Write the structure tokens for this entry.
Amino acid sequence: MKIIHCSDLHLGCALNDFEDGGEERRREIRATFGRIADYAANNGVAAIILAGDVFDSDRPFMRDKKFFYDVVEAHKDIDFIYLRGNHDNAAGYERAPSNLRTFTDRWKGYRYDDADIYGAELPYRGDMYGELQPQINRFNIVVLHGQINAHFLLSRLKNRNIDYLALGHIHSYSTGRLDARGQYAYCGCPESRGFDETGEKGFILLDTAARKFSFIPFASRLIAEYDADISGCGSAYEAAERIMRQYPSDGRTIARINLCGSPAFSDGRLAEEIKEYLSAAYYRLSVRDRTTAAADYSALAAKPTLAGQFYRSVMSDDRLSPEMKERVLSAGLTALGEATK
């Protein structure tokens, strides 16, 4: 049995890091949920676990609710196993499609030929750990939304015949051992919502027969923030070329570039010029100038001091690039500061 583990769609969320108030990004996030359902239909996936925060609010926008239920009803051969999280825990169910499985604040289970899937919405009402009793001879999946050791205790879930603990709430992919038998995993969010959620996003594909799972990158956009050291560059064009070599883009990246270091020129329009050079390579781009003026060490060239000898040695070393010379001089002369006073 193939199962998708997905969480934290946050349909309808505020997106302050994007132009146009994030409306285009919200459309992309909705579309990605549809694409995940299509992927499931085309790849023999029997169920999609939604481990919390499908919506960003207990009172979702009508267009987001309509889209969600339309997708569920359009994929009748797939079960959508929806556990509400801390953002949407009081959201009601607008429709009741036959393929939508839901949970409450007590353990509830769904049995399939190859697996049993249990879930409970937190905070739990009752003896959370004592009431969970998966059968030893079944492949058991437990779904929760929360942070380990803050909203539930991982240690209390050990040795309870759990094969896969499907978690939501943390927006980046991570996994670990639960005990000798089982593993836990946060699938992360399928799409980044801002520059605090950089890197590849997607979902987890679980194969119960093979008893293995893998992360599937699936986001329509890659959100990235780069600190670009342009020390030693003699022009905005040279700086842009270096940045493009270090941080290539396939055209789907929404990037924020922080210029740092000490370029060998002064330009009041540095950020604007570099953005002009690079904009075509990225889907969206913002550039921030955090550079500092390059230090002038040339006066040391003729000094018969240890600092002067160090300066001449560095500047004559053809193995070092201009930016590396700048770094070496800065670090070395700072270290020699006390000795040369």
